[in-house]
Amino acid sequence: MKQCKHLFAFICICAIAICSSSCKSSDTKDKEIVDNSVTIRLRSLTDIKLQNPTAVVTLYGYDEAMADTKASVVARKTVSLTAVPLDVVMAIPKKPESMINPKPLKASYYLAFYCDANKNNIEDEGDLILDSSKGLNTVILDSKDTQVYFLKSM
């Protein structure tokens, strides 16, 4: 009977140790998933009229050395666009290049933005996108500076 008590105590201690170690490892995994962030400022040179303040900011990655390949989503964030300018902090995965398919030789990143401003569920006139005439939508992941992008109506 005494041996059963010791065995039971041993099993309980092992269960507690396993549970606490698995909880710690999940915290570590979360820290490994997101290593960095990029701050993006969305501006506009014209007045923006919004019926729908929900917008999606997407960070794409691609291989600069490979022509005619599809870009891969690296990060995506839904934001509430209530006023412009708007600063958006996007979490970046620890190894963003690992999310690009096929595996890149030289990874580059760019930003996309979409807001169905007129709430008709159709990509059409009046919706908001990034204005590529104001510069490239390239994102520099290791920059600590706020990167500025301009919005325009379609």
Could you please describe the fold and organization of this structure?
By secondary structure, this protein is an alpha+beta fold. It has a single domain (34-153), classed as Immunoglobulin-like. Helix content is 21%, strand content 37%. The chain contains one helix and seven strands, in the order H-E-E-E-E-E-E-E. It has one helix spanning 2-33, and strands at residues 34-44, 54-63, 72-80, 86-93, 107-115, 128-130, 147-153. A seven-stranded mixed sheet has the order 3-2-5-6-7-1-4. Strand 2 (54-63) and strand 3 form a beta hairpin. The protein is globular, with a radius of gyration of 23 Å. The protein starts with a helix and ends with a strand. Mean pLDDT is 77; it is low at 4-33.
Lay out the secondary structure.
Layout: H1 2-33, E1 34-44, E2 54-63, E3 72-80, E4 86-93, E5 107-115, E6 128-130, E7 147-153
Parallel strand pairs: 1-7
Antiparallel strand pairs: 1-4, 2-3, 2-5, 5-6, 6-7
Oligomer: single chain
What's the Cα radius of gyration?
A: 23 Å
Q: Overall mean pLDDT score?
A: 77
Uncertain stretches of 5 or more adjacent residues:
4-33
Summarize this structure as a short list of keywords or feature phrases.
154 residues; alpha+beta; Immunoglobulin-like; 7-stranded mixed β-sheet; 21% helix; signal; Lipoprotein
